[in-house]
Amino acid sequence: MPSSSETASDCLASILDHIDCTELLHSLDGGVLLLNRRCQIVFCNRWISQHIGLGDDELIGKTLAQLYPGQIAPALQEAIENACLYRMGRILSYQLHKRLLPLRQRTPSGELRPLHQSILIRPLSESDLTLIQVHDITNAVKREQHLRASERVLRLERKVLELIATGDSMDDVLTEICTTIETLLPSVHSAILLLDEDGKSLSVRCAPSLPPAFMKREKGLRVGPGGTTCTQSIQHRALTITPDIGSDELWRPFAEEAKRMNIAACWAQPIVAAYDEVLGVLACYPECPSSPSDADKLLLQRMANLTAITLERHKRIERIRFLAMHDPLTGLPNRSLLNELLGRNLRRAHREGNRFALMFIDLDGFKEINDHHGHDAGDDLLSVLSGRMTDQLRGTDTCARIGGDEFVIMLETVHSPESAQLVAEKILTKLNSPVQRGPLCLQVSASIGIALYPDHGVSADALLTHADDAMYKAKAEGKNCWQLANPNGQ
Amino acid sequence: MDLFSADEHDLIVELMNLGVGRAAHALSQLVNDEVLLSVPRLEFISVPEAQEAFRKDLPPFLAGVLQDFEGFINGRAALLFPEARSLELVNAMIGEELSADEITELEQETLAELGNILLNHCLATLANQLKQQVQTDIPRAFSSSVSELPGNLSLYDNNDDNTLVMLVQIDFSLRNSALRGYLAFVIDLQSADSFLHALREYLAELL
User: Fold this and answer.
1) What is the pLDDT of residues A273-309, one digit of tens each?
2) Which of A108, A388, B41, B185 is most open to solvent, judged by the fewest CB atoms within 10 Å of its CB?
3) ipTM
4) Which of 3.20.20.70, 1.10.760.10, 3.90.25.10, 3.30.70.270 is the CATH number of A335-484?
5) Any idea where the PAS domain is (chain A) (predicted)?
């Protein structure tokens, strides 16, 4: 008695024997062709006639080359001949052959699109026929493109993040961000515009693919009513789109220029940092009138976020650098920065044969203010006096706070000892003038020691020591006066 | 295995180089860039010996392309790569810098075609030069661990006594990538006689 599995396989065999293979082939979602040794079609399934757009009767007996004269990819033609004549099996993949058969399909929206395909060519071993299978891989291509696109975005984002993390210069990172956008959105130029300190105007900071004329035009764009896309986006704090510059009223004054620069639209994404602070605009300028797709919008958003991170980090670094080199109370340079500036000025004076002056200033009676009125009063007094001193100086001079009530002023160049003395006189007057603090009237004076380069020394140490000594001499002379260091530096 | 004399062995090496050269030409045309292929080594061994060679030279996971052939020799041909590098090859061929972590449908197909072109040219050149016929089936891309490989390569379920492997090392170089893989031709020993016969005839004609 036959086992149940034997019965089942007998059953299956008999079912298969009775299945009409033709019907099976017609029902396949893909093309099937049978060719004879002369490459002529002896069978094609329904899918093929539908996609070629011809009936069976028009296809049978023809070769593909006859059906599509001059339109068959040479690789496909060769592969078919090799299979029909020499029995070599072959696969033709989509990635290596973008167009094989000129098949088209209708998209849901009704337009005809080329059909992405790969083709298998199998010489049948029990006959001299060759089986051709056409696979519609449109969906696989779509998936693959999507996969590659997101992979690309991720990689570029990672690159930008690495630049940020390794502390590359801000401008390099911003350029990389613009380049990334331009890689992902072909035929789009991008730029980063930053809000100025006052928050009232925009300046281009980075626009790697736009002509220099653009940098100039966008310099100092005022934020206010009547502004174009970028300034509007700042006001609305949202992506602002001008799909066609040519037909936009607000762009009219720049229409000619835009045409010259080959930009036809503008998409502006505001760059927003923590606490909703708007830092600037990430702008895209497509070469053809267009609006961003959802994916484009997402990309702009992500790139604007990266820009915000870059800008904030830059700001923080600048702040840290400032704090490291300045006195937090008065904002004046501290001893480190003074040393740096003094060294620089020494080299310069040496090179150019200049004379310059160093003044060591110590306040008289400051300790009493602190003791009687408290440290807050002392701090306020220092702030006010610092401001008064800097007011007396040129932009190139330096006033540094190097201790509690000790300051050093460096006059970058002086023509004679007298001009330094003149400045010292003015400083003395300013420091000696009373400072009103609420009901209190605070008053101190100062003792100043002056040393000149090269008269009193040619090194930073020597000059500082001699200025310090001269300051003590001024204290000894009764305070509220200046003293010049001894002529030979003694 | 001393099935072939030194002269016969040299002739096979020469024919394989010719076939690989033609494949390189075809691939270069396909990708519009220079593809260089060379065959540094060729040997005839048994399936277990081949497996040992793979274990020694290749990482544990392989990607490859299999293709059956029949004619003056019968058997199964395979192109084998380190799995991770096969993607690199596909990407270099299609001029794509990026690669996803896993091989996709389309990449699998492309790999199948690369193997197909290579194996067809080798087999067709061998047959044509020896004035013989061979036909090939369609290629199949696959991935497998080295230990599973004999299952993929065997002609007869787990009986390797009747087979002989022509193992060919192959070096690819294109667009700044270089990689080494293997071509393995698992030949049915019953057909090895006609192979030998064809080689001897060819050599006799030369003299």
Assistant:
1) 888 889 999 999 999 999 999 989 999 999 999 899 8
2) A108
3) 0.88
4) 3.30.70.270
5) 23-83
